[in-house]
Design goal:
about 0% helix; ten-stranded antiparallel sheet; mainly beta
């Protein structure tokens, strides 16, 4: 677990891992995580993660990002603790609360509880398929 300024924090757990404590780097397999910022939570699941110090966590191997009633699925994503955002340039499917969105590129702001699909957006509301 890593505590950020202002009481925000993030935590990852894994089935297996290897790391270099002095450098703050490592690799994890079968990853689950939680990020808390501004009183809001976001959950992560991924096949693997590479940690590069305290600057970036690279998630891969099928990633699910979940908050409230929403779930986003993609191949890879990054979490940058200093920014409080999960981002990806990959194809994404986002579902929840009667909404289905497909596109490319995702940005989730944990504190603001917003998600943005950046391009090629196809959406349906009320259960249809985009």
């Amino acid at each position: 677990m890593h505590q950020e300024e202002g009481g925000d924090w993030w935590r990852l757990t894994a089935a297996e891992g290897a790391g270099w404590e002095g450098e703050g780097t490592g690799s994890l397999r079968e990853v689950r995580g939680e990020i808390r910022r501004g009183g809001h939570a976001l959950r992560l699941e991924a096949g693997g993660a590479d940690i590069d110090g305290r600057d970036v966590v690279r998630l891969s191997g099928g990633v699910e990002v979940a908050w409230d009633a929403y779930r986003a699925h993609l191949d890879r994503a990054e979490y940058r603790p200093g920014q409080g955002r999960v981002t990806s340039d990959d194809a994404v499917s986002l579902e929840g609360a009667g909404l289905r969105v497909r596109g490319r590129g995702l940005e989730v702001d944990v504190e603001k509880r917003t998600a943005r699909v950046r391009e090629g957006v196809e959406a349906s509301v009320g259960g249809g398929t985009p």
